[in-house]
Specification:
By secondary structure, the chain is of the alpha/beta class. The protein has twelve helices and eleven strands. It folds into three domains: 194 residues; 90 residues, Elongation Factor Tu (Ef-tu), domain 3, CATH 2.40.30; 112 residues, Nucleotide-binding domain of ferredoxin-NADP reductase (FNR) module (Rossmann fold, 3-Layer(aba) Sandwich), CATH 3.40.50.80.
Length: 415
Amino acid sequence: MKSYKGMLFILITMCGSGLLWYFATPIETIHVLNKLSHIVGGLAITGFFLVFLLATRVKILEKWFHGLDYVYMYHKYLAILSLGLVILHSQLQDLVPHGDLAIETPLSEFAKELGELAQNGFIGLIVIALFAKFLKYEHWRYIHRLLLIPYALGLYHAYFSSRYDLFQPTPLGIFTAITAIVGTMSALYMLTMYQDMRFKHTGKVSGIRKLGDSAVELELTLDRKLSYQNGQYIFLKIFQTGLEKAPHPFSISGGDGQKIYVTIKALGDFTKKVNALIQLDSKVAVEGPYGHLDFDKGYQQQIWIAGGVGITPFLSYLQSNPTDRDIELFYTYRGHNDAIHKDLLQKYAENNKHFKVNFIDTTTMDRLTFDDVSVPAHTSIFMCGPEKMVKRFTKQFKQSSANDIDINFEAFKFK
């Protein structure tokens, strides 16, 4: 999947920030280490501006990065990079000769103390965020939002302790003001307005279908039609006592837009509760759709790979399109109860000569691998499943197959 526009956006923004700081004129001549420290600190502030901007799920950014999974990947690594720059900035300031430091005033001293507090806040919150898998999703969301506090402290530190006058309408001053405002507004938007502004489609649970012991298919009837493409997913909120109201991503497995279907596998705290407690007529809200698994834009020859509940975006396409493409599906799952809509896939394969399905039950069979498989040129590969599975297969295909194969995927990881 290509995310060149998004990568270019990050590169231009960060490089532009570095160049503006490098060529800016300080209030008075400063030591080279002090100048370097300011450049590094400016890059850190710019990095955190991008971190907050990428968290907004703005559609244009999702298109530039070709999927929210890529957006969140860069969001994570930018946070780590920015934290490293903050620490480096602090270390460089300690090396600046004492005579080159600004004369201390109550305001600058306070700004310096806030800078140290911001650094400690960034360290603590980002370290917690990196251990997201050990936290409940709802707790992780609230902790993650606290990043706005050290960001605001860092901005205050930058404006009131810098040896550059950032209040002047210079190129650096204008750039810093714009990024500071957009970064802060992005964070405030996610804190206060996102839930109300983006979840425009509301409705209710109009059907519940159990799929074995650990999966359920929900029929959602919406107040107005949702326009989506097969292979896309939504963020879903369920307003029912006993279930957290935080939005969670689920692939659309079918429907006409007025009614849509989502299949939910009991994989975590929230999904386990949904499988056990979900009730008819529970109110829901939907945001999206997202995703770029566009099967119609792929080559005539296609390979599909699904892991567990990752079969759902493929089901959406099969149930709405009698395909004329040559498709071979590899469906890997762990145990009979993990296989979703197996009968539907078998029946579809029997009635369509262009479609072939392979079932891989890892409790009784060897794990699926493509180490020694050479995929022919002009083949599109579509994958959906756990992040580790997607990464493993992507690496295998790139090492053993033709250069002009087309690899597309969605991975199960959003924290």
